[in-house]
Amino acid sequence: MRELIYYVAVSVDGFIATPDGGFDAFLVEGDHMQVLLDEYGDAVPAHILQAVGKQPPRTRFDTVIQGWNSYDIAYSVGIERPYAHLREYVATRGDRTPVEGVTFTADPLATVRELKRQDGLGIYLCGGGELAGALLPEIDRLVLKRNPVAFGAGIPLFGSVGLAIARFRLVDVRRFESGVVIEEYQRA
Fold first, then answer.
1. Which residues, 6 or more positions from 53, have their beta carbon under 8 angstroms from its beta carbon?
2. What is the mean pLDDT of residues 83-89?
3. Measured between alpha carbons, how far is 62 from 71 in angstroms, rounded to an integer?
4. What's the DSSP call for residue 117?
5. Could you report the per-residue pLDDT of 94-152, keeping only the tens digit for each?
6. CA torsion angle for 185, 140, 66, 47 (degrees, to 10)?
7. pLDDT in the model for residue 146
8. Which of 106, 98, 144 is nearest to 125 (CA)?
9. Which candidate, 57, 72, 80, 111, has a CA 20 to 30 Å from the CA of 91?
10. From edge to edge, which strands make up the β-sheet containing 122-127?
11. Going by C-beta distance under 8 Å and a sequence separation of 6 or more, which residues neighbour residue 20?
């Protein structure tokens, strides 16, 4: 069965973005970047891969699911398929204009459960926090790119999920000179 993998940058105090949705404080330069491009290249938006002259490795993910706010970062600037190299799903409660190659879903939990029954590579949970909280029962693996910055407030890693206990065990930690630490957890 396929895994749902929440792969996300996070501050040391547990936020994936500032209160207004900003994420510019996360480090985009440093020795950790080669790992992100090589090992997690499938999770890099297509236009960024093209800009750095890379092809998606197609080894880790073949599907992405993200919330509307995460999708809208690219969509609002005219990029309708930010992950054109993946099957794209967007969780949204609103009526949206159809986009070829993107599946909008009002029931992300049912969608993920169906995707997990299909053959394929991992399913990349791109964000945001509210969607991650809703999908917490189905998350099999966390890959946290912990950045050496504190926001003090913002969008929590799992949104406003409330009390929902899910146990994970730490399976890998990689530290970089940049200060970024990649922590990988598997559902216990």
1. none
2. 98
3. 17
4. H
5. 889 999 999 999 999 999 999 999 999 999 999 889 999 999 999 999 999 999 999 99
6. 60
7. 98
8. 144
9. 57
10. 102-105, 87-91, 61-67, 122-127, 4-11, 141-147, 181-187, 168-175
11. none
3-state helix, strand, coil in the chain (%, to 5): 25, 30, 45
* Residue 110 structural domain: 4-187
From residue 151, give the alpha-carbon distance in Å to each of 30, 32, 143.
20, 21, 20
Instruction: Record the tokens describing residue 174, joined without a space.
Output: 């990689």
**Which residues, listed in sequence order, are joined to residue 66 by a DSSP beta bridge?**
90, 127
Amino acid at residue number 168:
F
At residue 83, the pLDDT reads: 98
The one-letter code for the residue type at 71 is Y
Question: Model pTM greater than 0.70?
Answer: yes
Q: What is the CATH number of the domain that holds 167?
A: 3.40.430.10
The label of the residue with tokens 């750095």 reads 52
Total of domains in the chain: 1
Place of tokens 């169906």: 114
d(CA 15, CA 25): 11
